[in-house]
Specification:
This protein is mainly alpha-helical. The chain has six helices and two strands; from the N terminus they run ββαααααα. Strands 1-2 form a two-stranded antiparallel ribbon.
């Protein structure tokens, strides 16, 4: 976008805007509110049963948690690059970055499945104690959001392949990226709370 000036030259102006559309932000805020409520529940139960919450994290598979943290942070970088590629008008790069985002999301799900198997083999179930009950609820709820996010990014990939986005109009892709970043942010909060802080 250019703005004329009195000497006949044009100067570029950048248009600052909130990515995505208002609807996605209402949805993201409602999702964050849900997780915030259960974070509060988690902290209250931790205050009431400090012994369970001091020993619980050490019994979990921290390596799986670290691997999934790295995956989600990397996937957020992938989806941010997809948006940048679209802004530059490079559809092939956009599709490549979105494919990598989906791959990272799927690998997250595989690691989470293997982690749950490891838990069961070590006698960690929803009935073990309150800490593990909350761990499973929060982790599985987040996993469901990752699966939804994969579908959302898949939809954005399809739209990109169909040519629905260009350097000027890509609000749908920004909305998908916003949702994916929300999933990443929630996990960054969940990881230390479940796996590290005792």
């Amino acid at each position: 976008m250019t703005t004329p000036v009195t000497n006949g030259q044009n100067i570029s102006t950048s248009r600052h805007h909130t990515p995505g559309n208002p609807a996605i932000w209402v949805f993201v805020l409602s999702e964050m509110s849900e997780f915030a409520f259960f974070f509060i529940v988690f902290m209250v139960v931790k205050l009431l049963h400090p012994e369970l919450f001091s020993t619980g994290p050490a019994q979990l598979n921290t390596l799986a948690g670290v691997a999934n943290t790295v995956l989600l942070i990397t996937s957020s970088w992938f989806v941010a690059n997809a948006v940048k590629a679209t802004q530059s008008g490079n559809r092939e790069q956009t599709m490549g970055w979105l494919t990598l985002t989906i791959a990272a999301g799927l690998l997250y799900c595989v690691i989470k499945y293997l982690e749950y198997r490891w838990n069961v083999e070590h006698g960690i179930t929803t009935r073990s104690n309150l800490f593990f009950a909350l761990y499973y609820y929060l982790a599985f709820n987040h996993l469901l959001h990752v699966l939804i996010g994969i579908c959302v990014i898949g939809w954005a990939l399809l739209q990109s392949w169909l040519g629905a986005y260009d350097s000027e109009e890509h609000q749908g892709l920004e909305s998908a990226a916003t949702y994916w970043h929300m999933i990443d942010l929630v996990w960054i909060l969940l990881f230390p709370m479940l796996y590290i802080v005792g």
